[in-house]
Amino acid sequence: MPALSAGKNVLVIVHLIADYGQGDLAFAEVRQRLAVHLPDADVVYTPVPPFDTLSAGFCSAQLALTEGPADRLVYSNVAPRFDLDAPREDNDGEGLVAARMPDGSLVVGANSTYAFSFLRDEADELVAVEVPPSGSQFRSRDAFPALLPRLLARDATLGTRSVDRASIPAPPESVVAYVDGYGNLKTTWSAAPAPSGTSVAVAIGGRRLLATVSDGTFDVPAGEMSFAPGSSGWAGRAGEVRWYELLLRGRSAAEAFGFPAAGARVEVIELP
C-alpha cells in the first residue's frame, strides 16, 4: 500500500459498505466525515440490508479480492451488536478489524458475524484495532474514520493485535449470500450440483421452482431460470472460486422466491 505523505492521502477509491440506505442521513454524515479524513478519495457506496453481515462480507470480498487499484480501501460497517445481549456501556459494539490483502488493498470494518468470513483465509494481515472510547452509537461516523489514514499509513503507534482467524466463522455453505439489483440470487454454492443441462428443483424457504444447471446464466430461454456460475468470484489462495447464482431471465429470481434474505438455505434437488 503506498504510504501517506504530509497528511495527504493517495487513495484512488473508498468502497463504503453499510446497512443504512443511500438516501439516509447516516450515509451523508459518514460521507462528510470521510471527506475530512480522506479528502481526495472517490467514495462509492454499496448498500446491504439492515444487520446483514453476510451480504456485507460477500461484497467486501468481491471488492477486495478482484482486480482493482492497490491503493483502495473497503470500509464496511454493519454492526448489529448481536454478540452481546446484555446492556452495553457507552454504546460499545463489535471490535474494529483491519485486513490487508495480497495486492496491498485494505479492508476495515466492524468484526460482526460474517463480515470477514470470506477474507479470513485470504488476508496477509488480520488485526484488531484499538478504538478510543467515543460513547457514540454511530461509531462509523464518530470513532472509525479518524483511524483510517493511520491504518493506511501503517502507523506503528496505533494499537493493534493479531486476530485468531479461527474465531471468525467460515461462510455458511449453500445459502443465499447477496441479492443484486436485478433480483439475481448470488449463493455460496461454488460447484455445480449436477451436470450442465440438468433440470433441478431449487427450494428456498417454502418455495420450490425449476431451474437448469448451466455453464452460463443466460443459457436458458426467456422466462426460465438458470443456476450457473455468475459474475461474482475471485482468485483465492486455494484457487479460483466462482459463485453460482440463480437468474430468472427477464424477471426477478428474488421475487419469484419470495425475496429470501441472505443466509436462506438453497437446496438443489436433481429431478428424475
What does this structure look like?
By secondary structure, this protein is an alpha/beta fold. Helices cover 14% and strands 30% of the residues. It is built from five helices and 14 strands. It has helices spanning 25-37, 53-64, 139-142, 148-152, 253-256; strands spanning 13-18, 42-47, 72-77, 96-100, 106-110, 125-129, 160-162, 176-179, 185-187, 199-204, 207-213, 225-236, 239-248, 267-270. The protein is elongated. The protein starts with 12 loop residues before the first strand and ends with a strand. The model is unreliable at 1-9 and 83-92 (pLDDT under 50).
Question: Secondary-structure map with pairings?
Answer:
Layout: E1 13-18, H1 25-37, E2 42-47, H2 53-64, E3 72-77, E4 96-100, E5 106-110, E6 125-129, H3 139-142, H4 148-152, E7 160-162, E8 176-179, E9 185-187, E10 199-204, E11 207-213, E12 225-236, E13 239-248, H5 253-256, E14 267-270
Parallel strand pairs: 1-2, 1-3, 3-5, 11-12
Antiparallel strand pairs: 4-5, 4-6, 6-7, 8-9, 9-13, 10-11, 10-14, 12-13
